Amino acid sequence: MDLKKVYNAAIISLVIQFALLVTLESSSMRAVIFFNNPNQLAYFSLSMITLVVLLSFSLRLSIFQHFFPYIIVFPLIFMSGSRGAFFAIVFLLISHYLLVKFSWKKVIILLFTSGFIYTLITFRNYIFMISPELFNIYNRLFMKYDRDDILLSDRGYSRIIENSEFWIFGAGEGYSNRLNYSLELHSLFGTIFFSYGIIGAVVFLLSFVRISFMMKSHLILLGGIAIYNISHNGIRSTLVWIIISFILVAYKKERK
């Protein structure tokens, strides 16, 4: 596998999405481009930057090549208005930053940068003066929720508690109407547990034990995707399985 070609292809793909974001007019508040919905754009961008970051370590690229892709991806995720993807990429960036070459100087710079960003966020009225569209996305990302149960009910976690009879073997996936739910459970981890029960969840987790031993400290770079999938079911995304395949190939090669 020519990892350099994979890296270049991933960068080109992100550049194309960024160009489309800039040139295409959106009919909705949240950017969609040619995806079916904003969350697909956000998850695609998050998955691609995760793949690029992993490739950066395997190819031992320069610091510029490590962090330049974030300049392309941040606008894509921000304009998609996806809360899960936004906080996921922030986590990925921090983890990536600390892993490149850890030092307390970096930690101090990171803390000062975080404080500066927080200060900017508090002056949200100025954002409205710049662009009402950006202001609307800002409100979606950073303002408090109106409902206390948004995680449990809106994402579907409550069905796990309401249907304890499925905890062992699971309820199976798909056709939510049979259980009087109109939408699927919006969580990868919740779906695995609810659909396949404790037995299926354990088997799923065990399959990643090998990956964790292979990646060691780099395992934290998958934290962004994990955070996103707390409130979204991204297991059907092809890119996620491509990332897993890359890990199995690249990190196994490094160990030899």
UniProtKB/TrEMBL annotation:
Keywords: Membrane, Transmembrane, Transmembrane helix
Superkingdom, taxonomy of origin: Bacteria
Bilayer-crossing regions: 6-29, 41-61, 67-100, 107-127, 185-206, 235-251
The organism of origin for this protein: Salinicoccus roseus
Lineage: Bacteria, Bacillati, Bacillota, Bacilli, Bacillales
Protein's name in the database: O-antigen ligase-like membrane protein
